[in-house]
Specification:
The chain is α/β, with parallel strands linked by helices. It contains twelve helices and nine strands. Strands 7-6-5-4-3-2-1-8-9 form a nine-stranded mixed sheet. The N terminus is likely disordered.
Length: about 375
Amino acid sequence: MAARGRSLGGMRGLATVPSYVVMQPTTLCNLDCAYCYLPFRAADRQMPVAVAEAVAASVNRWASTDRFSVVWHGGEPLAAGRERLAELMAPFGPEVEHHVQTNATLIDDAWCEFFARHRMRVSVSVDGPRDRNGERVTRAGRPAYDRIVRGVAALRRHGLPFSALAVVNDPSPGRATELYDYFLDLGCEVLGVNIEETEGVNTRDNAHEAPVVTAFWAELVAAWRRNPRIHLREVEWSLRYAAAVLDGTAGDLLPTRLDPIPTVAYDGSVVVLSPELAGFTDPRYGDFSSGSVLATPLHTILADAERTPWVGEFIDGVEACRSSCPYFGFCGGGHAANRYFELGRFDGTETEHCRNSKIRLLEGVLEHARDHQSPGA
Ligand code: SF4
């Protein structure tokens, strides 16, 4: 089913206009989850308004011609406080869509009114039922689950739609069904599922037996098909790809150039492709930054981003994937941070992450389809 990578034309290098920008209003997080990748989550380094103004100068131009999003991501973005976040959002024009990725523990009525007033779309991080959230703890080491659920209840009370993001560290049989049923009850509109990744300061092994991970994804598809009320991000993308392969249009699915997904750190430095690299340094690659918006406009930084040495190496890695991996048309070459944190460089190809979350995902969706084929089909 996977279309051979080398038959896919098109995608070459980085686009100069992103589809969204990630902003880090503070490095601080009020939780201390065991699998978190963030290096400075105990420190409260706040973004000055001058950084937001500089980013908005480019974003407002892009948003005047196309749909454009700013994603507020931390640390825990709500830890910056409503007043601060409002000041940082103020330079962006009314056509810019604002999203926030939050652990939900700080959400209360006042935050819900803020989200409604700013038409902010909310995505909460929660890993499933209480027992699956044991790794999500406060700075004092206490379970955060009750606070997460209280925050979600506030969203529901205010009639605010929300997405959810779940990390799975044990994809054993039964987990996918449990997970999907939980999120049906929670009431989210969109669900993203990540198998835990080895990245940033999280060095835990993420290798799993291939049949176990494939079966996890197949089970998730089965659960979803019984009640497809939630948009299940990974599964819907897989099904779109499968349909395009059958139609002979799979080569058109990938964008012609990689979305640079710039992350603007609290201090204005810009890291492209992988938010997870922000805040790290390496003797070979430096701080991974392509520049600072306090010195150079964001659109100029992005126009030159391919010259950042590690970015060039990553593009070589994407080309290596294109010529060697049968899953390239589905995956597009994976994520820079996974290559770096697993392989120590950017021009390698397969990682545990891409096995867990690309290869086994597609295999799982196809396994489900095979198991449910009618005998006469
Ligand atoms: S990242 Fe992995 S799945 Fe994706 S194209 Fe490269 S080798 Fe294939």
